[in-house]
User: What shape does this take?
Amino acid sequence: MNKMFEFAIRRQWSGILAVIIAGAVGLSIIAPAFLTSFNWFVMLRSVCVSILVAFSQMVMLGVGQMNLSVGALGGLVAIIVGGLMDAWGWPALPAIAVALMVGGLAGFINGWLTVRTGINGFIVTLATASAFAGINLGITKAVPFYNLPSNFLAFGNGKIGFFPILLVVPLIVTFALAVFFSRSVEGRYLLAVGGNSTSAELSGISVSRAIVISHIISGLLAAAAGVLAVAQLGSAQPTIGADWLVISFAAPIIGGASLSGGSISIVGTVIAVLLVGLIQNAMVLLAVDPYWVTFLLGALILVAVWINRYRAVHLDED
Amino acid sequence: MNDNFSRTPSRGIADLLIRGSGRFGLLFILLVLWIVFSSLSPGFLSRFNLGSMFRSVAVDVVVGFAQMVVLAIGGMNLSVGAIGVCAVMSAGYFLQVLNFPLPIAIVATLGVGGLLGWLNGVAIAKTGVNSFVVTLASASLFSGGMLILTKGVPLNALPPGLGSFGRMSFGPVPALALVTIAIGIVLHTVFFHTTLGRQILAAGANARAAEMSGIRVNRIVVVAHSLSGMLAAAAALMLTARLGAAMPSVAGDDWVLPSFLAPVIGGTALSGGEVSVVGAILGALLVATIRSGLLILQIGDFWLQLFLGVFLLAAIMFERYRATLMLRQQVRHL
Amino acid sequence: MPLVLDRVEKSFPGVRALKGASLVLAAGEIHALMGENGAGKSTIIKIITGVHKPDAGKVSLDGKEISLSSPRTAISLGISAVHQERNLIPRFSIAENILLETLPVHRGLIDFRRANIEARCHLQMVGLDIDPATEVRRLSVAQMQMVEIAKALSHDAKVLLLDEPTASITDAESEILFRLVRQLRDRGTAILFVSHKLEEVLSLCDRVTVLRDGETTLTSAPMKEMTRRTLIEAMIGRAERPTIPRASTPIKGPPKLEVRNVATKSGHQSISFSLRKGEILGLYGLVGAGRTELARALIGKERVTSGDILVDGKVARPRSVADAIQRLRMGYVSEDRKHEGVILAHPIRSNIAITIWSRIANRFGFLTEKLEREIAEPLSRQLDIRSPSLEQIVGALSGGNQQKVSLAKWLAADVDILIVDEPTVGIDIKAKAIFHELLNALADKGLAILLISSDMPEMIALADRILVMHNFRIIDDLVNDKRYDATSLAIMSAIHAVEQGSEDQRTTMS
Assistant: This one.
């Protein structure tokens, strides 16, 4: 029994996977509605945005920084893409392209400010979050954009069996990030900077460049999340992104990322998001107070970090 | 060349000027803004506007204090808002449902805040986990838990005592502002004139050195976080007094950014080991002045948020510049 | 001529680190760079490796003036370095670390198979037989050092810079390094060897440049003409002033501190010794022997797993550092001054009073700066702390003065037992001598002192008795008769005997 426990903890995400499977089994017994095609469609669709949001922060954790503007940025991009399609009548693809560019630009601003001013990334992104949220309010005056082109809406609603078309995006991104961080020089350099920025610098790696690049990627991912959120909801709500911050940290951390930088787990992050998605689904099916999700999320983070420490201290793993 | 210490008194004044220059600078900017705003719109200096501004600043300052005591120890408390909401609803519950007399309700609410802060502190000290993560998690835990218990229903039928205190003023100075000043005086005394304060600042500046000098750092961490929780609860009580009702929609995430803004603009170091009570007050006043001024000039919320973000960055850059200058000055005198 | 620094100057806020330093590093030579801490060695290293840019003066390579604007530029110009602190990425494999700047790429992606093969070659050169896919954080300090050396060597650099490369490795590994360095020299590489170990430098290097207070006092002097004495003179400006050895009176009386058969979580076994009032007990050992860990166990920071610690005859295992200080009246002057000894950002007066805040405060916990000053001022005078004011933040003081502050706070606490860990590392010779006199005086006044040091002359001048530590055990306990040659020989023989014994064991077992 002890051996199994040790194995589960050694690969952090395998433990979570076990919990997910157990939970899914249990849930299907208690609430048969869980196993319907429609329910799976809804559940899988709901994790699409969260996966991208989690990745957006995960990239920053990899380089040893953080991005508190993930939600505000994503929300702003959501408004922009919705506004372009609704107020200016743009077709979907150009609107999405511009939205992503805005995300990349915003990320660049974050990175540039952090590097140029030398101010802690925490403060910089706290400030830009406020700025982005302000611009959001200024554009929408709190009124959503509703008139979206039908092909865009179809993308958001489409499915094959229970598999949402929307899920294609996170799948592609997951694969791309996995290759990026394990096999590309640029990605390894990001992790090197996160692992020990002084050493990286002395080996000739540009720390500033790594920070700016990771912010740009983070911004692009947050922007993509914003676009998907609009597709999922069918309208561009100004409140998109308001509650992204917690999950953006929770998922990578639960998935095993190190807060000091340089160690992230793509698989772990995705599985963590799946866990949260499962919990949310369970809450709905069992008609439990939705506030329980918030509560459990906090508890999960604490358990995950505790396990992390346990591994580091007792098993010499980390 | 050991004739040094006779120069200490004058060094003291020069010292004060250098150390205090950040604060004087803030005061100066504050006055300039007041002059600018009042000339653009005389309503700025009206008793009504000043009164309402001071009332909300009073709360903001205490929220800033709640973050300041944790920044002092080199950590941060992302759950100030969540503790605030819990305290608001606890206060409502104690007053309206359990019908506690006002003083008991106040003490009980502070106790709730202190308890939640204590939980944070213990989690951080016992597990050695970063305060960012722990308080991020506890923020969810606390607000989720509170919403589960209250179902988000506001309590509007509070006994009048608290509300009328909230509306009271002595001349242009609201009673709430006096509470803030009192809290500020206590905090200043603690940080600069007590053992506890010294230990907090030492642990914040260099926890290893502090521990190797005999300071029980874990205990200090717990105390700092408990204090933070209590201050958040105090701010919550003041807010409830101002609003006259206990609503779960206030506080919460709204408090997080301002809780950092005020102390950091005012000179409290993000990395720990240095605080400024006066600075936090001035910082909050500055933010409130800008907000009030923009409101009076009927410039919308859009500009405010944007401006606050930019302003925060500018303030920090200035602070870093001043700190480097200070170090240069000090070393030159060697 | 590969590398020339011509009257280079560099200043930082408030400090003139280099006032006109020159260095001529020729191809095919091992060139020593020596100087006391604070003389400017690390600034020169940072300039050569592109971390800092000089304020004035020229740097030229192969006759052409160059501007080393970043580490990347330096590396691209053929300058490679092994720094004093470890500079590896902990979670990356050995191969990735070694080949970090030149990762083999196949169709856009990293080819790890080839990387491992290439890395294995480099590892073989330094005699390290480990799987290159191993994560670096799993290696020992010595192994990491060898990996860094392999990494520097893999660049086939024109200029190789080694900063205290033998600090954490064994003699055997140092020999491998020296052999490689000589091979590189014979192949034409220019090697800059920074070390404070005089014997090493005298035997290995061809030429020497000496820095003192930001200026060069000796440039490219041939090593053949140097002696230990001339080198020291160049570094400090006058001949080494030997510390007047402590009078050899036998210390009598009951032990103040007794350690019986103690084992610790860090790995100590059967540690036994006693320390009397007024005695200076030396604890000698090489890097990695376990001395600091033992000190930390005594002061309550690390855990004692078995055995007894007695103070004044009563069993007294410290439950925490605070407990050791307050109940057992012990003090510990840490070897890591900047991170443990002082709080750099705070003023002198609070750094000195920190150990007794609760004692000087009144019943309600109130205390004033005036009270702190009253404690700090006399101590500051006694220890001759150079500063215009007690409000000066400690970070702005020189290393020697910082160390004095680090000691002063224990005097303020009026401790009975003082553990002093490598007290004079990185301090100029004058301050060193003052420190030694201080320790003598404190012992004479009745303090029980445990002196941890790897500086043999310091140890022999000060200690009444010397414990020799090796591999977390005490292997010898000698009375110090102050005869340098005899005593130092006895100590080194003891260590070699044990090392030889375990070496023999390993050979017989394999």
Remarks:
- DSSP finds 13 helices and two strands in chain B.
